[in-house]
Amino acid sequence: MVVDADMHVDQEDFLLAQVSEQKNLWGINFYPYSEPAQFLEFDSMINIRPADGNRSRTVESPEMRDRIRALVDKLVVR
After folding, report:
1. If you write DSSP's letter for every residue of 9-76 in order, what string do you get?
2. Is residue 15 part of a domain?
């Protein structure tokens, strides 16, 4: 996980250079001063990947959103 860059694409480039696979990279936003239900947003231009079945800026798969939430809960102290 990479946080705090000007744009998600900057973080994506960094992770790809670290041998991450594109299919495993998703763009999300944190809102640390929001209520827990609004803390995490699944919106990013890097999420538009029709070849991987994701046709919008949001992470469309409920299963993938659950996996992302679990990772964020593990790595981010609130």
Report:
1. HHHHHHHHHTT--GGG----EE-TTS-GGGSEE-B-GGG-BGGGTB-SSB---HHHHHHHHHHHHHH-
2. no
For residue 4, which of 32, 46, 34, 37 has the smallest C-alpha distance? 32
Q: Which two three-digit tokens encode residue 8? A: 């998600």
The reply to whether 19 falls in a domain is: no
For 33-67, the pLDDT digits (tens) are 999 999 999 999 999 999 999 999 999 999 999 99
Q: Which residues pair with 49 in a beta bridge?
A: 54
- Residue numbers of the domain that contains 45: 26-75
Split into its structural domains, the chain has a count of 1
46 close to 27: Cβ distance less than 8 angstroms: yes
pTM: 0.90
Structural domain contains residue 65:
yes
